[in-house]
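step: validate -> pass
step: tokenize input -> pass
step: predict -> running
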Amino acid sequence: MQAELTQEFGTCVVDVTLDCEDGAPVGLEAEHARLVGGLAAQAPAGARVAARVHAASHPAFANDVATIVDLAAGRLCHVMLPKVESLDDVLAADRALERAGAPGLPLHALIESPLAVKHAFDIAAHPRVQSLSFGLMDFVSAHGGAIPAHAMTSRGQFAHPLVVRAKLEIAAACHAYGKVPSHCVVTEFTDPAAMQAAATQASQELGYTRMWSIHPSQIRPILRAFAPAMDEVQAASQILLAAETAQWAPISHGGVLHDRASYRFYWQLLERAHRTGVSLPPAVSHWFDACALNSSF
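step: predict -> pass
step: emit ->
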């Protein structure tokens, strides 16, 4: 499906993450790590495949990293580290990846507890960390029943103050350090309307630029929600073309002042359009072909 979407959109719009944490049977963690490493090693060139290992505190963590990197280092786009509580967990993962011979492999961190939220800025600041993801269900469970089960639903997760606060802290930490905030799952995978509503709220109100899916049916609603509308793309293109003509000096466009601050905003809007497969006007599309942008961010 990733290959089909890449062909359709002209860029890779979805990562595939193979799971060693919740996906591994208890007692068979080593076998599961070999399975994940073997599958990742078979990924074709250009595919974006990641692996979620066990938490740094888990006995299987070191073997997960060593096994998967040994089998598939050249095919992995990143490693996902769950249950990150503080910078110490990131440092442990950094050392493990160095020992495994993957010094340049990015790390994505899952923020899943109140303590992790407290340390989100320190975690996001680490140079190996590329993205922070919010783990909704573990976060709710970490409160010992103080947050109701409704907060794990597509609507409830945007209503409970503690959950919303955590999401905002994670997004703010990411944007402070130029990292990617990735929104949590929607478990109602048979309800595409709920999926798109949640994705729209995550992108428009909470500052998230990526989102997890747990079923193939959720991918297109996410892409639609995170992609800019065509009228926004057209307006951004017109403003930036006028700015280019003015040598990036301030301009008046439609009676509104624009300068380098707004130029940056509209450039980022076109980047987001490019990365979500939106067709850009020919007059500006060459900018992004020349930049060889990372297809997923």
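step: describe -> Confidence is low (pLDDT under 50) at residues 292-297.
step: cleanup -> pass
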